[in-house]
Amino acid sequence: MLVAVNGLKVTGQQLDDGRDALQVLQDEANYPINLKFARPRLTTNEKIFQASMFYPLYALACQLSPEPRSSGIEVLEADNFRMNCFQTLTGVKFMVISDPKQSGVDALLHRVYELYADFALKNPFYSLEMPIRCELFDEHLKTALEQAERQGFSNV
């Protein structure tokens, strides 16, 4: 997927300055030209689908492991993504889908677990097995993700 032409971001087929990317490519006067390509980002539905496919594999790995009380799959790596899973002692799983080359995912997962313990588990209105609906957790999670992105972590 074409993401930039001569440093200008491409959205659909249009450059940030309003010109059509294909017309810029066809015009020989624009050469030499610098093109930047990237894989398309996963949609939210695609990420949810991948996470839902991960759970049965995780359970199967736990059952097939020769190691008693195995923690199952911790990392599932493909050519264009890596899914890391961190399971807490209470069985709650946190997953991050990232670029395969991305580093620092384990630290991010541990930070998310700390936030979960501080803001969800200590909230008297939170029930286990229910979605986390805690404004403080959401705010701190957003801050942690922004901080991770500034430090070079992307595609969370």
TrEMBL record:
InterPro entries noted in UniProt: Longin-like_dom_sf (IPR011012), TRAPPC (IPR007233)
GO annotation (BP), single: endoplasmic reticulum to Golgi vesicle-mediated transport
Compartments where located: Endoplasmic reticulum; Golgi apparatus, cis-Golgi network; Golgi apparatus
CDD domains referenced in this protein's UniProt entry, alphabetically: TRAPPC4_synbindin (cd14856)
Keyword Transport attached: yes
Any single Gene Ontology cellular-component annotation: endoplasmic reticulum
Entry keyword set: Endoplasmic reticulum, ER-Golgi transport, Golgi apparatus, Transport
Superkingdom per UniProt: Eukaryota
Regions annotated as coiled coil: none
Family, similarity comment: Belongs to the TRAPP small subunits family. TRAPPC4 subfamily.
Subunit details: Part of the multisubunit transport protein particle (TRAPP) complex.
Alphabetical list of PANTHER family matching this protein: TRAFFICKING PROTEIN PARTICLE COMPLEX SUBUNIT, TRAFFICKING PROTEIN PARTICLE COMPLEX SUBUNIT 4
Role this protein plays: Core component of the TRAPP complexes which has a function of guanine nucleotide exchange factor activity for Rab1 GTPase. Plays a role in vesicular transport from endoplasmic reticulum to Golgi and autophagy. May play a role in dendrite postsynaptic membrane trafficking.
Protein name: Trafficking protein particle complex subunit
Source species of the chain: Portunus trituberculatus (Swimming crab)
